[in-house]
Amino acid sequence: QVQLVESGGGLVQAGGSLRLSCAASGRTFSRLHMAWFRQAPGKEREFVAAISWAGGTSYADAVKGRFTISRDNTKNTVYLQMNSLNAEDTAVYYCGGDLSYSSVVAGKGNYWGQGTQVTVSV
Using CA atoms, how far apart are residues 44 and 21, in angstroms rounded to an integer? Predict the structure, then answer.
């Protein structure tokens, strides 16, 4: 019932920055806990960051201090600000959501976007 659409991916040089967006449809966005996951070539999908409906955040060790997750409930949108990018950040980034915070952090959310490609050149 909830639709998620990611945008903002692209090609960036190492050390640069990108800001991803995930726009959600529906009237229940403010109730959803949201998260970002990524899948790099030849690797399994991994957790990146999460934000609760109230604004609490969690980050994977690999991105802590470089990435920031935020949300704007007025615009039904969650963001991922990515700084100091390196080649290991190259991946397809997915937005997910669920009414359960533990479910969304575990990658078991009920709602997913189609993904947006991030490529970091060196």
Answer: 22
Q: Looking at this protein, which amino acid is placed at residue 118?
A: V
By the 8 A CB rule, do 114 and 95 touch? Answer: no
Mean pLDDT computed over 104-115? 96
CA distances from 87 to 11, 12, 41, 90, 103 (A): 11, 10, 12, 6, 29
Q: Please name the residues in contact with 64: beta carbons below 8 A apart, sequence gap of 6 or more.
A: none
- Which residue, chain included where needed, has tokens 């709602």? 111
User: Model confidence over 5-22: pLDDT tens digits?
Assistant: 999 999 999 999 999 999
Residues contacting 14, CB < 8 A, separation 6+: 85, 86, 87, 120, 121, 122
Each residue's pLDDT tens digit, 24-53: 997 788 899 999 999 998 999 999 999 999
Q: Are 108 and 34 in contact (CB under 8 A)?
A: no
Say if residue 76's pLDDT is above 90: yes
